[in-house]
Amino acid sequence: MSTPVLETENLVKIYGRGPSRFDALKGLTLEIHRGESVAIVGKSGSGKSTLMHLLALLDAPTAGVVALDGRPVSQLKPAAVSDLRNEAFGFVFQQFFLNAQQSVLENVTLPLKIAGVPRSERRRRGLDVLRQLEMDSKAENKANDLSGGQKQRVCIARALINDPSVIFADEPTGNLDSATSRVVEDILFGLHRERGITLVIVTHDDDLAARCQRRLSMQDGRIVNDDAATLHAAAAPAAAVAPHPARHTPSSPATGRHAAVPFPAEPPAPEAPPLSRRERRRLEAEADRRRSGARGEAERA
Amino acid sequence: MRSIDVAGTALSNTLRSKLRTFLTVVAIVIGAFTLTLTSGLGAGVNQYVTKMVSGFGDSNQLYVMSASPVAGAPTGDGPVEYDPETSGGGASMMGASTLSDEDIETIASIDGITDVEPVVFVNASYLEAPDGDQYAVDSLGMPSEAAAVELAAGELPAPDTAEITVPESWVEALGAGSADDAVGLDVRVGIANAVGEMEEFAATVSGVSLQAVSGAGGAPMPSQSLNDDLYEYQNSGLAVDRPESYIQAVADVEDLAADGERIKQELTEHQMLGLTLEDQLGAIQGVINAVTWVLNGFALIALLAASFGIVNTLLMSVQERTREIGLMKALGMSGGRVFGLFSSEAVMIGLMGSVIGIGLGVATGVVGNQLLVTGPLKDVAGLSLYAVDPLGLLLIALLILAIAFLAGTLPALRAAKKDPIEALRYE
Lengths: 301, 427
Hints:
- The complex is a heterodimer of chains A (301) and B (427).
- Chain A has helices spanning 48-55, 78-88, 104-108, 110-115, 119-132, 148-160, 178-195, 206-210, 245-248, 277-300, and strands at residues 6-15, 22-32, 37-42, 63-68, 71-72, 89-93, 166-170, 198-202, 214-219, 222-227.
- With 301 residues, chain A is an alpha/beta fold.
- Chain A has one domain (35-60, 77-300): 3-Layer(aba) Sandwich (Rossmann fold), CATH 3.40.50.300.
- In chain A, β4 and β5 form a beta hairpin.
- With 427 residues, chain B is of the alpha+beta class.
- Chain B folds into 2 domains: 3-54 and 283-425, no CATH class; 61-276, no CATH class.
- In chain B, strands 5, 6, 7, 8, 9, 10 and 11 form a 7-stranded mixed sheet that branches. A 4-stranded antiparallel sheet of chain B has the order 4-12-1-13. Chain B has a two-stranded antiparallel ribbon with strand order 2-3.
- In chain B, a hairpin with a 5-residue loop joins β5 (126-128) and β6 (134-136).
- In chain B, α9 packs antiparallel against α10.
- The radius of gyration of chain B is 32 Å and the shape is elongated.
- Chain B starts with a helix and ends with a helix.
- The relative contact order of chain B is 0.19.
- The mean pLDDT of chain B is 84.
- The A-B interface holds A 53, 56, 58-59, 78-79, 82-87, 91, 93, 97, 99, 101, 110-111, 113-116, 118-119, 158 and B 1-2, 5, 9, 16, 323-324, 326-337, 419-421, 424.
C-alpha cells in the first residue's frame, strides 16, 4: 500500500489541567488517502473540530503523531509547519474570513503573498482560479460587496490558489441558504472529482456528509463509526470505479496534483440540477457495489 | 512573504483606519517638528558664533586674563587676606581682577610671544558731526574687535591714522544721505580726562559698520592709534600716575599650534589665563550646545509620549484584526513574519511622522529665520538662527524610526503569538 496523504497514530489532545481538564481526543488512529472525500461529523464537543485542527497542522497534539505524506510533522519547527500548511493545504471556513476592505483578487491571492510569489504571478494565478469559479468579473470588487455564496466561492478560490493536495472545510455551508449551499457543495465535490483534491469536511449537515465517500462519526473524542463504504448521491460515485481500479483506488500514488482527471467526467458540477430522490438511491446502490468490489481488489493486490 | 509585500501590506493597513493613524502620526509629527527646530536652531546659532568669533582676529592670538583671586569678591570662606603682590595695585573691574603693566611685561617676556597689546576701554563723551551737532557716545568700540566688525561701506580704520568707523544708524545724524556718503566725513571725538577737562580729537570716517549680536560695530570704533591717544588723555590730568590696569591683553604668538600649550602653562604659573580663539569658541559653543540639548530633551519627551500612542494604536489594531492574524497564520504565515508585518506598521507610522514633522520643521525654521533676519533682527549683521544640517536631519529620522520600531515590538509580539485557532474562533 502506498502512504496515505494524512495519517494519525494514537492522537490525544487534552485541554486544560486539573479539574478543568478536558480530553478532546482520546487516542485516534486513522488514515486519509489521496483523493478521498471525508466528512467528520458529530455533535459539538465530540472533538471533530479538534481533529480537523490537528490534521490541518493548526494545532499540536498532546500525544500521538500526525504524518503528512508519510512524514511525521511533530518534530518540525513552527516555521516549517507554517510553510507546509501554505503549500499543501487549502482552507474553507464557515465564516469566510475575507478581508472586507480588500478586493476579491487580493483576498484570493493572500496565500501566494504569504508564500512570497511575485505580484504579477499572483495576479495571473488569482484571475485563473477566479475564472474557474466564474468569479473573474468580481475580481476588483471589494469582498464586502459580495453575497454569501459569492463570498464562499472566493474562499474556495483562495483555498485552491496554491494547488493544495488537501482542502479542509469547516462547516463550509453553515452560513448559506440551501440553494447556495448546493452550489458551493457542487463546486467542492467537482474539484475533488476532477482534480483529485482530498477533501476533509467538518459538518453538522447530514446531506453534505452524505455526499462524501467516507464519514467519520465522532463522539466524546473517539471515532464511533468509520463509514467508509457509504456512498451517496451523484457527486462522487465513481471514486473507486476507474477503469483500472488497482491504479486508481483512492490510496493510489498516481493521483498527483493536476494529474489528468482520474475520474470519469461528470455533468457540470456547479449548476447541476438536483437529482431526483429515486435516481440518487439508484446511483448510491450502484456506487456501493462498485466500491466494495474495488476495495476487495485493492486488498488482494 | 517578500519584504516589498510586507511594506506594502503594512502601508495599506495603516491607511485602513485613517483617522486613528492620522492622530498617531500627529503626535510623532509634533516631536519630529520640535526636534528638527531645536537642533536646527542650535546648528544655526553655532554657525553664526563660529562666523562671528572667527572674525575676532587671526587665530595666532592668545587672549590673556588675570587668574589671581579677586579681593572683595564674594566668597563663602570669609575675606581673603590682603596681599599687595597679587592684588595688582588694588584695581579690579566688574569683579574681575585685572592685568597690570608688570603683567603685560611678563607676558611679553614669554618665549614665543611676539607682541602684547592691552585691551583698554575708552569712554568718550560725544561725537561731533561736521555740522557741529554733538551726539552722546557711551563707550567706543575696541580696535581689537576690528576683525569681527562687518562693514556696510568703506574700510576699517588703518591702525596708525586718526580714523574711525560709525554704526549704520548714525549715518543720517551725521548728515550723510547714505552709508557711502558718510565715508570720508570729518568728525571730532570729545573726551573728558580724569579731572573732567574736555578735549576734542579730530577723526575721519573710514567706514560704516553693521551691528553684530556681540555688540561689535554698534558703537563708533577708532583706529588703534586714535584709541591710544584717547586713552592717554582719558587717564591724564592727575598729579600722580595711577597704576594702569587692563581687563585683558591680546598676545600675538608666533606659532600657536606648537607653543600654545607651553605658553598657557607659563601664563598659569604667573597667575594668568591664556585663551585661544578656539578656547573661547569652545566655551561659547559649549553653552549653546547645552541649551540646544535641553531643548532637544523636551522634543525627545514629546517623542516618547508619541511612542506610547503608537503602542496604543497598534494594540487596538492587533485586537481588531485578531481574525485576520489568525487567517494569515492558518494560511502559513510564520510568527516571525506576523511580527515583521506589525512592526513594519509601526515603522510606517514613524516614517510618515518623521517625514511630515521634519519637513514642517525645516520649512518653519527656514521661513522663520528669513522673517526674523530680514525683519526685527535685520540690524544684526550675518545673523543666522536656523541652519539645515542634512546629517542631523537623517539622524533625527533614524531616531524616530528606531523609537517607532521599539514601540511596535510589544503589539507585534502579541500579534505573532496569537494562536490561529483561537484567533479564528474570536468574535
